[in-house]
Design goal:
single chain, 130 residues, mainly alpha
Length: 130
Amino acid sequence: MRAGENFILFVQWYFFDVPKEILRGVKNFLKFGLHYFSIPFLLKTLFAHWHKYFWQYPKGLDIPKILEVWISNQISRFVGMIARSFLILIGLLYEIFILIFGILFFVFWFLFPIIWFFIFVYGIKLLFKI
């Protein structure tokens, strides 16, 4: 191969192949977070009972017992909602972190040659004290 062909291959790799892989990697991390934290499932079951703990209503017209069961079931749903909300929040924070980090890495990948050039010029200036 000649030098021109190597340069074209490098440009293709640097500006086309690797950015596709970076985006694919970020997409995989985002999918992983959705499945690991079960965000869609937790949203569907947000108001479900905590660990399926619920009490059966009595057969007769026992008002105090009915209120006790109703309040206990509401407390179970509230505890489930709090726990699921916390997990959803942690999952969404993970997703936001991965998205921001992925975007920054993607942008940095394209800026790296420019940054490297300025660091090189600065080093030459320091070396020769221009």
